[in-house]
Each structure stands twice: as structure tokens, then as C-alpha cells.
Amino acid sequence: MSSWLLRGVVMSVLHIVTRIILGFFVIAAPLSSNIGKTIALVVVVLVAIIWGGFDGIKDARANPDPDDYEDLTIRWLKVGLFAAVISCFVCWVLGTLWLNGIGQAAFWIDMTAGVSFVTLIVYVPAFFGVSMGRFFVRRDQRKAELAAEEAAEAKTTEFAPTA
Known about the structure:
The chain has about 160 residues and is an all-alpha fold. The chain has 4 helices and no strands. Helix 1 (about 5-30) packs parallel to helix 3 (about 70-95), helix 2 (about 35-60) crosses helix 4 and helix 3 (about 70-95) runs antiparallel to helix 4 (about 105-160). The chain starts with a helix and ends with a helix.
């Protein structure tokens, strides 16, 4: 299974489970639905940021030169789109046939607006995480290079004859 497909399956399952839990929460406490929606959104966004960050760290360590980085933009766009289509369709079916309160709309609205929204809440945070992961690795690499240069310079000045 390709890496983007695995990530897409996991993110779609996460989104489906989050919406099911949110549906139960909205039915149990309708006046607190905004809190539940916020928590559900934060969970999905945090998972995307963290997973994207791990991808960025892994990629930056494997490719010290930024010109050699993998194209994680397209990988995470595929993940977001796959997760969106699958999760919106499954949640629409669940909401239509079984679970009230899941918050589904008409089929075509869910498959256009819903897919667009879910794609963005997976893709944008994940790419932010990728960027941050790469940034932290590059920062550590620059610190190590600077320390090595300073150590080499200290050695050369230590043995240089003074006039």
C-alpha cells in the first residue's frame, strides 16, 4: 500500500469516528454542540499537523539538501482528497440510514462543500507540519555545521604561529 493511501485511510477513519462521536455528543448535549465541533476539528487538525511534521522531519533527515526533498505537497493533497471523499460519503450514508445528528447535508452538497472543507482541514495543517518539521531539522543541521566550523577554526588558530 502506498504511503499516501495508508495516510488517507487513517485520516478518513479518524474523520468518520470523530463525526460519529460528535453526532452522539450533539444529541446528548445540543446546547454544547459548538464545543464538540471545536474539539472534533482540533483533533483532526492536530493529527494532520503532527503526522505532517513527522513526514517533514523524516524527509529533511533523508535529504540534507532542500533541492532533494520529496514532493510532500502532492502526497498530502492526495491524502486530504482521498480522506475527504471517503469520509464524506460514509458519513452521508451513516447519517441517512442510521445515525441522526451526524450533520450530513444533501448528497451533492456533502460531496462538494464537505469534500472541499475536509480536504483543506487535512492538507493545510499537514503541510504546515511538514514545513515546521523541515525547519527544525534544517536549524539543527545549521547549528551542527556552525559548531564544526568553529571547532575547525579554533584548531587552526591554536596551531598558527604568532609573530
